[in-house]
Write a structure and sequence with these properties.
This protein has seven helices and eight strands. The chain has 206 residues and is an alpha/beta fold. It is globular. The two termini are 40 Å apart.
């Protein structure tokens, strides 16, 4: 097509959004795909039958009275993903700031406490934060230079545990990542390939 096209003619385009999602995500452990439009479901089923036949049983039609985003709390999850503060289950939290130069992630223990002392509390908070960092980077589509300010830990073995957990949380990331080591100041530098606009940019929010 490109050999005979005039300047400005379309010679190639990516798949429609629904098909792109199935192509990129269906093989990543997705158990169910709900589609709220029968016509779109038919097109997606044909696509899956042709290219990902093992995933065909996972496609379902959502036909309930409530809108699919409302039923599954999607709007709430999107709003939560755009917040600067991310609460962890143990009571700690992350603070995520995006700048032109880098992404800064600050780890705080919050109200979390441990009978084993400060080192155990810091290690537990950091491990939980390390797990959540991988999820947040993918969810928000954050890339470039990323600096994580972990809670200070004195024992070197605990630093290694946290570094390993960061790498584990990024193991299934489609983007290229490079993870450094925690410095004596508690900082871990890493980089993540920029694949597309961040969630904030895609939502047209400041």
């Amino acid at each position: 097509r490109s050999l005979h096209a005039s300047p400005g003619d379309l010679v190639h385009e990516d798949l429609p959004l629904g098909m792109r999602v199935l192509r990129d995500e269906l093989a990543r452990g997705v158990e169910r795909v709900l589609v709220d439009d029968a016509g779109e479901l038919g097109r997606l089923q044909q696509f899956v039958n042709d290219f990902i036949p093992e995933g065909a049983p996972r496609l379902e039609l959502h036909a309930g009275p409530r809108p699919i985003f409302d039923l599954h709390g999607i709007e709430e999850e999107i709003n939560r993903a755009l917040e600067r503060k991310v609460t962890l289950k143990s009571g700690g939290y992350l603070v995520i700031d995006q700048t032109e130069a880098l992404v800064a992630i600050d780890v705080n223990s919050g109200k979390m406490a441990s009978e084993k002392g400060v080192e155990a509390t810091a290690t537990k908070s950091n491990l939980e934060a390390a797990t959540e960092v991988g999820r947040q980077l993918r969810l928000r589509d954050l890339g470039g230079l990323i600096v994580i300010d972990f809670i200070d830990m004195r024992e070197r073995k605990n630093n290694r545990l946290v570094e390993d957990e960061v790498k584990r949380s990024l193991a299934n990331d489609k983007a290229r990542v490079s993870v450094g080591r925690i410095s004596k100041f508690g900082l871990l530098e890493m980089s993540r390939q920029r694949i597309k606009a961040t969630l904030t940019q895609g939502s047209h929010l400041p």
